[in-house]
Amino acid sequence: MSTKLVIITVGVLLTLISILGSKKRNSGKSLINTKIGIPMGIIGVLMMIFGSYSSGLVNYNSQIEQVSIGKKLKITGPVNSVKVVSPIDKDSVDCRILTMGVYPESHKKDIWVMIRPTDDRYYPQSDHTNTSYKRDGEWQVVTRFGGEKGEVYDLIIYEADSIASSFFSLTIEKWKEAEDYPGLKLEEIPSGAKEVERLKVYSRKNCRGVF
Fold first, then answer.
1. Which ranges of the chain would DSSP assign to H, the alpha helix?
2. CA distance to 5, 45, 63, 109, per residue, from 158 (Å)
3. SS3 187
4. pLDDT surpassing 50 at residue 62
5. What is d(CA 72, CA 87) in angstroms, rounded to the nearest whole number?
6. How far apart (Å, rounded) are the C-alpha atoms in residues 26 and 36?
7. Mean pLDDT of the region 120-139
8. In this structure, what are the phi and psi dihedrals at residue 67, rounded to the nearest 5 degrees?
């Protein structure tokens, strides 16, 4: 259980104890002295508010998250394979960008974007849909960088079958729950995920502590 969920749980317990303790017994006295019960209830409510605000139960961060769009590649002719349109190779990018691309009409697999920073780990990128959003031959996903200014990243595009896609989704959920993002080793990437394109991009600014 994450620290934030512990805070919420303790807050709920304190609030319940305060409410139940305020009930009077047959003797007319409360189970808990009001000088203790009222502050306990206030602390409990504040803990629930703080835990909810910082855990994502209140979806504040996602509402204000701003992403930028890098340079775009011009696509001419028919699209025969999954291709990145933005950013382009050797581009300098902001801390949050929208990675965009195209895919052929017959394409049925999920598209995943992974970044590989200098720690040699692979980090699948996702937004609320987890996999890249696909529609009418175009796909996109929010991509987040957290390194120093000028740090180099491999931005890698994968086609994934349903098993590999489920693995990436479950991995992200586990990381979020633990509030720890260790990345994947190359050998941990499922065989059902096939690399289709790889670019190098550089962080335009210091993104440490942004997320």
1. 3-21, 34-55, 60-64, 162-178
2. 33, 45, 28, 10
3. helix
4. no
5. 6
6. 20
7. 84
8. -120, 150
Distance CA 4, CA 107 (A): 41
Q: How much is the pLDDT for 145?
A: 92
Using 50, 70 and 90 to split pLDDT, how confident is the model at 61?
very low
Which of 73, 104, 82, 75 minimizes the C-alpha distance to 201? 73
* DSSP state, residue 129: T
By DSSP bridging, strand 152-160 and strand 83-86 are unpaired
pLDDT higher than 80, residue 77:
yes
**Residue 26 pLDDT class (50, 70, 90 cuts):** low
Whole-angstrom Cα distance, residue 140 to residue 98?
Answer: 7
Look up residue 82 and give its two tokens.
Answer: 């999954």
Report the predicted TM-score, pTM, of the whole model to 2 decimal places. 0.67
**Both tokens assigned to 102:** 């195209």
Secondary structure class of 80 (helix, strand, coil): coil
**One-letter amino acid of 78:** P
